[in-house]
Amino acid sequence: MELSSFIKLLVRHKFTLIIIPLVTVIITYFLVRNQPDTYTSNAQLATGLVDQTQQSLSIAGEVLQDSRISQEFSNLIAMIKSKKMLDQVSYQLMIHDLTSATPFRKPSKLMEQLNSNAKKHAVEVYTSYYNKRQSLSLFNSDQKGLYELIKSMKYDDESVLQKLLIYRADNSDFIDLQYDSENPNLSALLINDLCKEFIQYYTLLVKDNQHKAVTFYGDLMKAKEDSLNVRMNRLKTYKIQNRVLNLNEQARALYGQIADFETRAEEAQKNTISTLAAIRDIDKQFDPADRKYVESSMIKLSQQVLNTRFQLQRLNSEYVQSSFNPAIKRQLDSLNSVLTGQIYQNSDTYTVNPLSSKQHLIEQKLALQIQYDLSQNSVKSIQNELNRLNVRLNTLVPHEAVVQADENAINVAHDEYIDALNKYNQSQLQSNFSVQLRQIEMAMPGTAQPSKKMLLVIISGIISFVFCIVVLFILFYLDNSVKTPNELANTTKIPVLGYLHKLKGSSLDLRQIWTGAQTDQDTQLFKNLLQSIRYEVDHDLHENKVLLINSLTAAEGKTFLALNLAYAYALINKNVLLIDGNFNAPGITEAVKAKYFLEDYLSGKLSAENLVAASKVSVLGNKGGDISLLQLDTEHNITNAFNALKAQFDIIIIEASALSTLNKSKEWIDFTDKIVTVFKAGQTIKGTRKQQVNYLKSLDAHFSGWVLNEVDKNQLPAS
């Protein structure tokens, strides 16, 4: 339904949809007919970012992430489009057009105003700033004028960028450049100059950065090397001054010796204790007299044994101090054998009590006594040697701390030096390679591109046509006015009894419409629609007789409906009384030139029988004025007066004023049986109208429904 309504709207505005696109096409044609042809030139740059054959040794094998590659290409493209690069090209183009007899473009009005001196000055300034790779300052009046001159020739960066296309070719290593202009030589020269300037600037920038990197890493490497040499010399001096050779080996040897001496000290201590215990056991086997005798006898032993014991103790001390030298051990064993022989020789001497035979015990005691003395001497010698080794170890600890700290510092300095050396070698290697960026495809003057004039003309027509449709659709979508009976019923949720279409002509003769023998198709349709409304009203009235016709606002056609409905009832042989109850605008009274007035009837000057006319339609007008129905008489008298009218007439049709007049319209409702409200098509229901619709709904069965007036037949659905 909505689609068909929109299509009907388009049909109604068909001339608008034809004329506007046609005018647009004509205007576009005259605008583009003198447009020059376009020539396109293309060039291509190889970057060496993803092409492994172009990678230098320093970065060969390095795999770049896609995000980093995209960023590199974005940086390069942004650098090409930068004002610094485009200004260099602008300077060259301006110098060419100012000095050449065949400029690329027709001189602008501003350039035509320049004299020879001004042109010479402009060339000098452009050349100077081109060599210095600088942009013109807009704060300087002279340079600002020169910039305006460039802009007038459309050689400025903004104008160039409008026709310049720079992009990465798919995911390749190449950057494509394209420029369109009206001159093939201009297109080719601009692209080639832009590539040349960019490559020169990029190479200069890269080489300068590489030179700075080599210098920086060279100085850093030298500083790290000097720091490493200073730390190494300081450690060497410290070792020489403190006679330090290899602290780790010395400490390891001392730890080994100390562990060995501690083990031997434990063994000597055990031997001492066990030997002393054995001597005490032997002494317990002698009684005091024997022990006294033995001790006195032992004093008399040979001086040779004593001397040998002293030599044995001295040799045992040397053995310990020599870290248990095997040669001394052999001497010690030999001296032990000598001492044993001396003891056995002295044992043959009678040293015991003749009354007792304890010679063997005495020999054991003598041997144990010698062994005890040797053990005690060994413990003392070993302990002295342990003390001496601990003293040596303690002297190594401060040296170890200093040496270890210096060695750690040397290791750190060495790592820093190696890192700086590697970076220096890498930066120096990179500086020896040429920049991979190069132009592999030169821009050539191209042929004229296919003309877009006709395409622009067609597109303008299509766009204007679509624009008109969009505008009409927006108007259609935003249009909330009621145009058809269905829309009125759906909007108000109240039945629609019928509708009347809009008749042609400024004035209508109702008698001719209803009594004329010949009528046109439009008039016949009107009569059919009105008869249909009459049938619906008559069916809703049933046995009731009083029908009230009103509207929401004035001038909606209720007078027109009331008159025609009266004629429609007269055609079916009904005695009709038409009452003009609109005191504000008595339209019926004026239309039929009424002879009888409501005020006279209610005052008793007229009777109901006097109102009956032979033409089946009687009219009771009013004298107008700012009054209402209840101001004419009481409610009881008015009711009686209407009862008398019901007895004389088959149907009574009353036109009341619009509901916007408030009580003047609503007072009639109490004296009527049914209400029909006229609504003029093309209006919206909102605000006050919405409140009036709610009031009509509150009347329930008393309200019959709507009659939609002045409906456009084109808005109605096809039957």
UniProtKB/TrEMBL annotation:
Q: Where in the cell is it found?
A: Cell membrane
- Identification of the protein by name: Lipopolysaccharide biosynthesis protein
Q: Which organism is it from?
A: Mucilaginibacter robiniae
Keyword Disulfide bond annotated:
no
Q: How does it sit in the membrane?
A: Multi-pass membrane protein
Report which superkingdom the organism of origin falls in. Bacteria
The alphabetical list of record keywords is: Cell membrane, Membrane, Transmembrane, Transmembrane helix
Single GO MF annotation: protein tyrosine kinase activity
Where, if anywhere, are coiled coils annotated? none
Query: Any stretches that span the bilayer, and where are they?
Result: 15-32, 454-478
Q: Where is the Polysaccharide chain length determinant N-terminal domain?
A: 2-93
- Which coarse location class describes where this protein primarily resides? membrane
Key word Iron present in the record? no
Which GO cellular component terms, listed alphabetically, does the Swiss-Prot or TrEMBL entry include?
plasma membrane
Q: Which InterPro entries match?
A: Bact_polysacc_biosynth/exp, LPS_length_determ_N, P-loop_NTPase
